[in-house]
Amino acid sequence: MKILSVASEAYPLVKTGGLADVVGALPAALSEHGVQVTTLLPGYPAVMKAAGGRAVYRWRDLMGGGEARLLRGEIAGHPLLVLEAPGLFARKGGLYAAAAGGDWPDNWQRFAAFGQAAAQVATGGVRGLRFDLLHAHDWQGGMAPVYLRYAQAAVKSVLTVHNIAFQGQFGAEVFPRLGLPPEAWSIDGVEYYGGVGFLKGGLAAATAITTVSPTYAREILRPEFGMGLEGLIAGRSAELTGIVNGIDPAVWNPRSDAALCARYDEADLARRVQNKRAIEQQFGLDEAEGPLFTVVTRLTWQKGMDVLAGALDSLVDMGGRLALLGSGDEGLEQAFLRAAARHPGRIGVRIGYDEALSHLLQGGADAIIIPSRFEPCGLTQLYGLAYGCVPIVARVGGLADTVIDANPAALGAGVATGIQFDDVTHEGLTYALRKAVSLYGQPARWRRMQQRGMAADFSWKTSGAAYAALYRSLVSA
């Protein structure tokens, strides 16, 4: 079976978040199930530099964006297609926003062209390339199922929602330039509150919809999580599936991770202290008896970072320390930097992102704090489990699906892997932090939690099988 995976980023070529990790891991995860995944990416400068490839198709003018070529190459040993469209993707700045901030004003054109090209490739429009199914990711890939639908193509499609908060909404004035028939401007098409919705259109058009955890699939049926799309999703609930993400053990493995000062397994957790000492040195933290917490995230409201910022004085009063790696809202960045200035040696902050440092933080910190208001799946808690860095998580989305709360029953049975809490408020988070400090003071229990998390299988083995089964059910139907 041949699948065309349509996404705006994929590790290791280009990454802004967890979407890239998932898209990058899918080809290997599915190959053992007899599924060959070809990944289609936009030709950003980083992708063009790393991927190369040979041209197999040309467009004289792709959706008004000028000349474009389809290049054929490889990503981590698996098939790769790159849409080289200099007028759309060859630019400095972020993937979706200019360096000075603000979305690229032609994002509608960039990712509509991407979706249109994907649909053409999926349906055999390029000689030598034919696929059984198209798998699109998030709003950036959402127009691909739309173009398949209105071309009345036989190829079926899956749309995975990684985060429904990002929807790709544009003004009504772009609709005439999308190359869609008039009937696409409707409640069953791409029209969305008087404008054009790329994710909305994809949700309406795709043969099947998946989210990145079972709990998130249930949550987005409700207004507080559905972000305005809960009605559409409820109407398509029979086609909705939640498949939890996995992690790549070749990349995230404390037994072999070159980013760690000391590698270890669940039988040799004492070696983690060498990584802790390295974190303390890099973040200017004092050595102390209490737990070392870490945060590796975007500093945003969704991630509950405003609540954490308000709880830092309490965290220090409990005897905890914090090493934070992240960037995002300027106000939150400044709040954490001020907290570090108030508590020198107890709180260290690094604004930005560093892949190797994120591995070291998981390999040396005692616990990772993830107080998200909503979290479709989350990967950092999975990395924490794999590295013996106990997750402290809000009970939402994939966090609820992957962390076993250290309640009395779970502790008694020896199955707890982390700490969950319900209210993303100062009181709720402070309660969870106190609980963590208390459990950390019980070394035998804490060690069992670490070992239980490290023994869990969060590789792509199970999730890959679930995707393969979904693909086959759609193709056979």
Automatic annotation (TrEMBL):
Binding sites annotated in the UniProt record for ADP-alpha-D-glucose: K15
Residue ranges annotated for the Glycosyl transferase family domain, each copy included: 288-447
Starch synthase catalytic domain mapped to chain residues: 2-233
Family statement drawn from the similarity comment of this UniProt entry: Belongs to the glycosyltransferase 1 family. Bacterial/plant glycogen synthase subfamily.
Gene Ontology terms for molecular function: alpha-1,4-glucan glucosyltransferase (ADP-glucose donor) activity
Pathway: Glycan biosynthesis; glycogen biosynthesis
Alphabetic keyword roster: Glycogen biosynthesis, Glycosyltransferase, Transferase
HAMAP family documented for this protein: Glycogen_synth
EC number(s) stated in the UniProt entry for this protein: 2.4.1.21
Top class in the EC scheme: transferase
Function according to Swiss-Prot or TrEMBL: Synthesizes alpha-1,4-glucan chains using ADP-glucose.
Annotated organism of origin: Sphingomonas olei
Pfam families for the chain: Glyco_transf_5 (PF08323), Glycos_transf_1 (PF00534)
InterPro entries for the chain: Glyco_trans_1, GS/SS, Starch_synth_cat_dom
CDD domains: GT5_Glycogen_synthase_DULL1-like
Name this polypeptide is given: Glycogen synthase
Catalytic activity line of the entry: [(1->4)-alpha-D-glucosyl](n) + ADP-alpha-D-glucose = [(1->4)-alpha-D-glucosyl](n+1) + ADP + H(+)
